[in-house]
Amino acid sequence: MLLLLILVHLSSCGINSNHKKITSLKPENQLIKVRQSRSPIVIDALMNENVWTDAIWHPINQLWLGQPYTDKDFYGRYKLAWTEEALYLLAEITDDVLFDKEDNPLVAWWDDDCLEIFVDEDNSGGNHQYTHNAFAYHVALDGNVVDMSTSKEGKLYNTHIDSERKTNGQTTVWEVKISLYADTYEDDGNNVPVTLNRAKKIGFALAYCDNDGSSNRENFIGSIPVNGEDKNRGWIDSNIFGTLLLIK
Ligand SMILES: [Ca+2]
Ligand SMILES: [Ca+2]
Ligand SMILES: [Ca+2]
Ligand SMILES: [Ca+2]
């Protein structure tokens, strides 16, 4: 029985012993339909494009790490849109203290206040801890974008994400363009973003690392419920991601 469970787990990683892709067992939780923008989206942290007016808000309200928090400490919601070129995100985050703990973007990047964007271009699910089967982009307050490389260390992926943020009082609006890359992505290669089309499905989740002045992040709040005791699974296991469906 144990062997069977291990085999099922391995097959859920999307790779079999011949390293060929097989049908994913990724659960299709939280299916979100995402509308195409008819006009270009300007990354300026202003939500005045028509597609943002029409899109609905989705909550970031699942406590993945830390103690229960108040709306004053953290409140977050987001909208999504797409063009053939990229996936677009608008996030509105209320956070009482913005804190960039480490100046160096590659030191403990998860302990700074940051937006964490999880994307699995082909919605395959499976392990992605040290692969590019999926990405977990940490977008820092200064705009630097970090994920784990295939060399098992933090690496800047600033060309994948174009973002702008504006803070008014304790509320920050982030407008983000996310170029999507296939699992064939090579850290030292020439990589071209994927062109998006209607009916495409993408694995996706969003989270916020909230630190208000502590030595480690205080809270990690995600957009999707995660089963089990350990809810900090997104950076390892893309099976916990939700699913986006691109529509006209
Ligand atoms: Ca805009
Ligand atoms: Ca806070
Ligand atoms: Ca994948
Ligand atoms: Ca904070």
From TrEMBL:
Stored SUPFAM superfamilies: CBD9-like (SSF49344)
InterPro entries to which the protein is assigned, alphabetical: Carb-bd_dom_fam9
Domain Carbohydrate-binding: residue ranges: 43-247
Protein name: CBM9 family sugar-binding protein
Superkingdom in the source lineage: Bacteria
Native species: Psychroserpens algicola
